[in-house]
Amino acid sequence: MDKKFAVGVQVYLKSGGPDMTITKYPFSEDDDKKASKPSKAECCWFDENNSLHIHVFPIEALELI
Question: For the chain, first and last CA: distance in Å?
Fold first, then answer.
């Protein structure tokens, strides 16, 4: 995979939605620490009411802006 996912990079979901910023990559949970290849990224974004949202997504679901 040639994509350069990193903290601070802007992404969006392949299925659509708001532009987001990667805040933690690679993201790992206790069960995921044995994974040899990073598979998740934590992203944040603001909605139309300026409310902050944070969620973890599989990197296969993300596209670079």
Answer: 16
